[in-house]
Amino acid sequence: MPPIYIYATSIWSCAGRGGKTLWDQLQKSSFPSFSGESPPFLGRLGKENNLTLKKLKQRNKFCTRLDRTILMALACGEELLKSEVGQCLDWQNVPIVAGSARGSIQSIENFHKDFLAKKKPNFLASPLTTPGFMASALAQELETLGGAYYLSSACLTSLHSLHLGTLLANSSMDSSAELGSGVLVIGAESCLTPYYIAQLDALGVMAKPESHSSDLGQNQIAQKYPHCAFHAERTGMVLAEGAAGVMLGSRYAPSKKPMAKILGFGFKSEPSTLTGISADGLALQKAVLDACQQAGIKPEDIDVIVAHGSGTQLGDAAEIKSYQNIFGESMPYLCTFKWLLGHTLGASSLMSAVIAAQMLQNNEVLAIPYLDQNVSPPKKIKNILLTALGFGGQAGAMVMQAV
Length: 403
Description:
Helix content is about 35%, strand content about 20%. By secondary structure, it is of the alpha/beta class.
């Protein structure tokens, strides 16, 4: 596929807002600030971000009705609109691709609770909880007529959204801007509701209480990093809320300082379990090879893997097995950011892509602070492989390259 360039990014997380803030924390291997005195630990936005969302919700009558997930996506979109790149585009013609695994889940639960109490549904329940409403709401508030697309595919959601964004950028007829056809891609997730937390707890994928023993002689890593993906002490994920967005362009514009370029994708699925892939990660293996082929590179050209890293025993084991089958003794350096950000489900791939773009731009690897690897970080980063796994045997991969 022709390269598509990442020109601007926005990211909101429990560890802070903005690429520079997160970069500093990732560099320093800061301890995560997950909420909760005992499991389940959760990744919640901080006070400053919540205040911004509160002001956004009070802006007009339409915004007062929006779910928290949509408000987070809108905040990302407005940051990108106000960026230097956003200002140079014919914004009315920019398509929006929005994604979320659980959608307006807080509104759904609230409307259902109200229905059970009153035995009558609120007349706004249907339009405000329809999955595609997220994209429509963004288009309305951002005042664009370029088309609004919505995707939801578990933890692959924002990787699928990025793929659709690149297809739209390559197919758009509106390329008058210096950077070519612009496309806004956003992933958002705010599913820290009692019912959904209980769902994941019932599946046994949340970090367990015994992994956070007060005995410092045991499980020291899990105490410091509750979401310790790929570590022997891992026992599950830390569910978190977050949002991320990127502005894509179909043309190389040096004056706009693109951060990275996207070269290829691969997506596969397999009949395995309801919640994961097979033990040898066959779907992920095929997805990675397809992404490399589309990018015009070989697996051995990969310098860094930005991995999914769900933190679950079976999921991480299958993911590592997949990489071993692909790369053998030449395993690239492994990165994941969920130890700081938690697992944001449908937003996770976009959050990883934003940080991966910074890695390429800065030519610097962000290590996993608790994981000893048998390979040294590369001195020069050219190609990054980003992967994602989702419920039902889904797997995806994307190749990013330095500009």
